[in-house]
Amino acid sequence: MTLLSLISAVFLFFVDRDTERKGKIQSANRRSRQIKWRDVLQFPAIFWVICLICSFYYINVFAMMAVLPDFLQERNGYSPQTASMISSTVYFCAIPCVPFFGRITDYLGYRLHALLIAVAVMIPFDIALGYTSWNPIPFLVICGASYSMVASTLWPSLCLVVRDETMGSANGIATSIQMIGIGCSNLIVGALRDHFTYTQVMLYLACCATMATLMTVVCQFLDYKQQNCFLNVYVAMKKKAAAPAPSGTEKTPLLPDQGPETGVINENKETEDSKQE
Length: 277
Fold this sequence. Notes:
Helix content: over 70%
Oligomer: single chain
Radius of gyration: 28 Å
Strand content: under 5%
Number of strands: 0
Structural class: mainly alpha
Largest sheet: none
Low-confidence stretches: 245-265
């Protein structure tokens, strides 16, 4: 798999370079410059809120996936092979859903509304896993759909709220915050598992999903106040606002309105004609 990733990265490099040379993308025309620390300090508040959403949400998903096989063996009595196969349902569901949800988001917009739904659905998911003995497969399908929707809305939103020349730094900072949260959360989950049961672990994950949901609500408020609903606007309305005004309508006169200056021009012309006579 690592070799396949390397081959894909090399192929992507040549495709990107060829596309830049043909002028089909704008990255070749960007003027790069050295990033300074004050650029990071000038990131808008909505950027940092999105980073917190990223951290709390992926804490929920990755920490849950780390303990899910053992959890299914203990709660449902599955064999290790069966528990591992059922745990993979999240990723198998996310594979076809990511391009589908990405296309819907690009077509409709409403990124933060979709993000709020995808994050909030993890709260009943964690509670149902922790406090019931129902079949886990339907819940894991919902988790996979939520995972793909977050991938289609959160990371593009992160790039839209910063300048182009700081996009790499923004993604690096967001990933660092995400990894810090996941690393600390794994320690917390391990301590909960040693001293309590999986019910308390799922309750902790539900609390993380609740924090991610609250941060998404704050993000919607900041988008409304500071970004003029840039992330949450309907795409058709955005295209309509960016379209040029029509050159003429039924109310546009065929001849320009010359106003009161027309009479002055005509009087001057009559005076010149009388002098010539």
